[in-house]
Design brief:
The chain contains 17 helices and 17 strands. The mean pLDDT is 96. Helix 14 runs parallel beside helix 16. The strands form three sheets. It has an eight-stranded mixed β-sheet with strand order 6-7-5-4-3-8-9-10, with helices on both faces. Strands 2-17-14-1-13-11-12 form a seven-stranded mixed β-sheet, sandwiched between helices. The chain starts with 17 loop residues before the first strand and ends in a 17-residue tail after the last helix. With 546 residues, it is an alpha/beta fold. Helix content is 33%, strand content 15%.
Length: 546
């Protein structure tokens, strides 16, 4: 059990709660034409930026534990950083280091997987997000493992590709598939792409929002049941022409040489590696392979395989049973410290981001630190494309937050409004502008409730997205396709806001906030605004006390 936080004598706790509002995917855009936040009617947020103490925080690259500052941030690493108050090396960097050092290949899991297929003369399968977006996976990690497997004598490899178009340009799939097919052919072995489909259609569901996605993935990866195509290039071109969908939304397909028999269903005796390193979109397909008791869909026939994930996706559930790289060991999070200090907390979002304000915020820990002091509220998300309903469940989240502020039972409330991120990923500017305007209305309601209760509202974000909706070249020129601006669906590298709304401010700190910090500084900031001293090893607060 951690020691309780010590009181901060420089600050008088306010009579109302501290509310941390994480506006997912909302940053400061570099280009006005692609910035839905700037283009939308958002008088509340823009007014607060002018009238209240504010600064800009870094939310990508090394500021959140990614390998380099060319790497975008994401919701997982962002909430890790916000919740634990400092920066840990994250999945992308850990896997990169494990491959470079050879640690991944010297581990027992890799040896078991390769030994299994060599002994049984069976197939090694890889399933994962097929891009170098470096948010859930990196195709370079896949290539390194295939090269090593070949060097160790593996004769049969099948790759099941989950098309991205979300963390990379929306119709970039062939930029990965075409050279990858040449890469596989260079080995002159039985190495093939076996199945595929868009990441928002198959396999990569999260938080149990839509198990049908996982079933569709299971059907093509394991059973080899689906629409047959002679190769992935043909499948992508044909499905684009038929549906008009971008990569993340392309229907599933199965590769077959004769139009009748799949080239790579997963069978008894095979080894399977799910090479995504991020946990939220890995747990459900992992359960389908690993769990003996499983009721979400009919898996029969469930093949007897040796399954492993790239990382341990849940340390409490010990899922998966086998994994290749140890995850970051995150401890002493803000939530745990507040529980040790007796501070009652509420965490709330809709399904799409519920795990982020709970599991990821708590350092990749399932469950609660102290159920007597914590309340978690999940608002079920709609299962519809977010560009068709850009308001999502923001109003319902706000209803619950306002009620909690008025009730006054919790000293700290943390919430996530997902609209900027989830709608931003669609690439639809009109929908993203609406999403920003919805978020602005919700912030206004929360701000009024906090003012009435005499609390403090901290507004920030985990990374940018809706602030960068159009592709630009390095000189800032808009990239077009057939004369139309090319939509951007990935996260941005932009800084995010940090606003302190403290209506009963007693002048303990200067209105000028510290600059040049990352979102990991939000933990110390919140702890100080609750009237306590942040741990010495936390990244510094944005507050300058007098």
């Amino acid at each position: 059990m951690l020691e309780a936080l010590k009181k901060n004598n420089k600050f008088t706790p306010r009579r109302g709660p501290l509310v941390l509002a994480i506006l997912d995917g909302v940053g400061f855009g570099k280009y006005p034409d692609g910035d839905a936040f700037a283009r939308g009617y958002t008088p509340e947020l823009k007014g607060l930026l002018k009238s209240e103490p504010s600064t800009r925080l870094r939310a990508h690259g090394t500021a959140v534990g990614m390998p380099s500052d060319a790497d975008m941030g994401n919701s997982e690493v962002g909430h890790n950083a916000i919740g634990c108050g400092r920066v840990f090396s994250q999945g992308a960097k850990l896997v990169e280091e494990a491959i470079a050092s050879g640690k991944l290949f010297n581990g027992q899991t890799w040896k078991d997987l390769i030994g299994n297929v060599l002994a049984k003369k069976s197939t090694l399968h890889f399933i994962g997000l097929f891009s170098d977006g470096n948010v859930h996976s990196n195709i370079n990690h896949l290539k390194a493992m295939i090269e090593k497997a070949h060097a160790e004598g593996v004769e049969h490899i099948r790759v099941h590709i989950l098309l991205d178009g979300r963390d990379v340009p929306e119709t970039s799939a062939l930029d990965y598939v075409v050279p990858f097919e040449k890469f596989l052919a260079s080995f002159k072995s039985d190495y093939r792409i076996a199945s595929g489909g868009g990441r928002m259609v198959i396999t990569m569901d999260r938080y149990g929002a839509n198990w049908d996605m996982v079933k569709r993935g299971w059907d093509i990866h394991v059973r080899g049941k689906g629409d047959f195509y002679p190769d992935a290039v043909s499948a992508i071109k044909d499905l684009r022409a038929k549906t008009g969908a971008i990569d993340q939304d392309l229907p599933p397909f199965v590769i077959s040489d004769d139009g009748k028999t799949p080239v790579g269903p997963i069978k008894d005796g095979d080894s399977v590696i799910y090479y995504n390193y991020r946990g939220d979109r890995a747990l459900e397909i992992t359960a389908a392979f690993d769990d003996d008791e499983f009721t979400h869909f009919d898996r029969s026939p469930r093949p007897d395989v040796m399954y492993a994930g790239m990382m341990e996706y849940d340390g409490d559930l010990h899922a998966p049973k086998r994994y290749l790289v140890n995850p970051p060991e995150i401890d002493r999070t803000m939530g745990e410290y507040l529980c040790a200090t007796g501070v009652k907390q509420l965490a709330i979002s809709e399904t799409q981001k519920f795990g982020h304000v709970t599991y990821f915020f708590n350092g990749n820990k399932s469950g609660m630190f102290d159920p007597a002091l914590e309340t978690y509220i999940e608002i079920p998300s709609d299962i519809v494309p977010f560009d068709q309903r850009p308001w999502m469940k923001a109003a319902e989240i706000t209803d619950a937050v306002v009620e909690a502020v008025e009730k006054g039972d919790c000293r700290m409330i943390r919430l996530n409004l997902p609209n900027g991120d989830m709608v931003g990923h669609t690439g639809d500017m009109q929908a993203a502008i609406i999403a920003m305007e919805v978020v602005d209305l919700c912030v206004k309601r929360i701000r009024k409730a906090v003012e009435k209760a005499g609390g403090v509202l901290v507004i920030s974000a985990d990374h940018g997205n809706a602030d960068d909706m159009i592709e630009h070249d390095k000189k800032g020129n808009v990239l077009t396709e057939d004369g139309v601006p090319r939509r951007k669906t990935s996260h941005s590298l932009n800084q995010v806001p940090c606003i302190i709304y403290d209506p009963e401010n007693k002048g303990e700190y200067y209105p000028e906030l510290k600059e040049g910090l990352g979102i990991s500084s939000l933990a110390a900031t919140c702890i100080e605004l609750l009237g306590y001293k942040a741990p010495d090893f936390y990244d510094p607060s944005v507050l300058n006390f007098k």
